[in-house]
Amino acid sequence: MTSHAHFTMAHNFRLRPWHNYAAGVVILGTQIALVVSPSIVPYDYLGPLGPILHNLAYKHERGMRIGCLAVWIIHACEASYAYFLARRANFSNKDSLFWAIQTFFLGFTSLVPLILKIKKIRRKQQ
């Protein structure tokens, strides 16, 4: 049994590929860095996004703070909704928590597969 199988032993939860989590952490981390400490962001290495992000970080600070807060609130709401859906579909506490955590980091791209999985389970039950 591989270590990956250990994390997927819950019946109604399956980990997304690792690169999805890495992208989510990089994107959310960059957003936080742009808001909290824009001087640490390596704009030269961000290609065509570098000048745009530099402009946003230094000339639209209030908008970036509001946007960052909105993104975190939206992700928290999506995670709460994922937990609610999973519990309503009679998933275990563990599965429901995994879906909520994954949805918090990956957002809508995790919520849609959960909704589709629940629909598939309901169709099988009919």
In short:
It is a multi-pass membrane protein. The protein has helices spanning 3-7, 18-36, 49-59, 61-88, 93-106, 108-125.
List keywords for this structure.
6 helices, 75% helix, TMEM254, 126 residues, single chain, mainly alpha
SSE layout:
Elements: H1 3-7, H2 18-36, H3 49-59, H4 61-88, H5 93-106, H6 108-125
Helix pairs in contact: 2-4, 4-5, 4-6, 5-6
Transmembrane segments: 20-45, 66-85, 97-116
Keywords: Membrane, Transmembrane, Transmembrane helix
Protein name: Transmembrane protein 254
Low-confidence stretches: 1-9
What integer value in Å does the Rg equal?
18 Å
- Return the string of H and E elements: HHHHHH
Distance between the termini: 34 Å
Determine the fraction of residues in helical runs and give it as a percent range.
over 70%
Largest β-sheet summary: none
Q: What amount of the residues lies in strands?
A: under 5%
Category from helices, strands and their pairing = mainly alpha
Shape: elongated
Number of E-type strands: 0
**Helical element count?**
6
Kindly state the mean pLDDT as a whole number? Answer: 84
Number of domains: 1
Subcellular location: Membrane
Organism: Amphimedon queenslandica (Sponge)
Membrane topology: Multi-pass membrane protein
Keywords: Membrane, Transmembrane, Transmembrane helix
